[in-house]
Amino acid sequence: MGVIAAQPFDFPFEPGQLGLVMIDFQRDFMEPGGFGESLGNDVSLLRNAIPAAQALLAGFRAAGLPVIHTRECHRPDLSDLPAAKRDRGNPRQRIGDPGPMGRILVAGEPGAEIIPELRPQPGEPVIDKPGKGAFYATGFAQTLSQLGLRQLIFAGVTTEVCVQTTMREANDRGFDCLLATDASESYFPAFKAATVEMIIAQGGIVGWAASSGAILEALDG
Ligand code: TIU
Q: Is there a catalytic annotation at residue 129?
């Protein structure tokens, strides 16, 4: 048994049940010319999460604990892209349109790849998901079950969209969820701050939050 110093209170964990979930650290969100920028965002802000995410990856790998990566992307024929998602708003480019990193948010294109700094290692599961949450229309639940995981540490982008949606989905399925605050970023600093607050409010209504340093200290200890 280990304990992570967290908010709103300590997070006790069984190492055999603990995994790291890396949400959507893809070029499409992290680099210019992809989906994130097509929505009008300054994508440079997201790079703040890379050093802490790298440290967590290294710590989990060194401890021999599972790491699962996700990517938001659609099949090349866009058969898993609802019209409601494709047609929303007035972006510069829509999902499936050609861009400098290939077709926007399409599996197999350069933009859908995880950034080199956080590239998955062979054997680490990579879940492609058509929605914001990682459970919807994927094998994520089965992967977690096969790995025997009940307690999840979340890193990734963006904090209030795909990370928070997946944390809420996991929380409702009975997982203990902890957000690694410095390993997650938003295009909107105020939204990130609000997300951390709403996760830990009401006695941890969605889960816990802690810095990568506190998580790594507990893994070492
Ligand atoms: N737009 C935005 O903030 N996020 C997404 O569309 N997807 C994820 O968060 N991965």
A: yes
Q: Please identify which residue in the block is written with the tokens 């879940």.
A: 127
Neighbours of 109 (CB within 10 A): 20
CA dihedral defined by 5, 190, 57, 112, rounded to 10 degrees?
Answer: 160
Single-letter code of the amino acid located at 112: A
Residues having CB closer than 6 A to ligand 1 are 24, 29, 39, 72, 132, 157-158, 161-162, 187
pLDDT greater than 90 at residue 221: no
Task: Say how far apart CA 25 and CA 184 lie, in whole Å.
Answer: 10
Which pairs from 91-100 meet CB under 8 Å and 24+ separation? 91/38, 91/39, 91/40, 92/37, 92/38, 92/40, 93/38, 94/38, 95/35, 99/33, 99/34, 99/38, 100/32, 100/33
Tell me, yes or no, if 177 is annotated catalytic: no
Q: Which is the catalytic residue, given 73, 129, 132, 182?
A: 129
Average pLDDT of span 21-33 = 98
Counting from 1 in the atom list of ligand 1, the atom nearest the Cα of 39 is 1
> Residue range 134-159: average pLDDT?
98
Phi/psi of residue 156, nearest 5 degrees = 135, -175
pLDDT digits (tens, 9 = 90+) for 29-47: 999 999 999 999 999 999 9
Instruction: Single out the residue of 119, 117, 118, 93 nearest to residue 106, CA to CA.
Output: 93
Q: Say how far apart CA 81 and CA 89 lie, in whole Å.
A: 15
- Long-range residue pairs from 79-84, CB within 8 A, at least 24 positions apart, any chain: 80/130, 80/137, 81/130
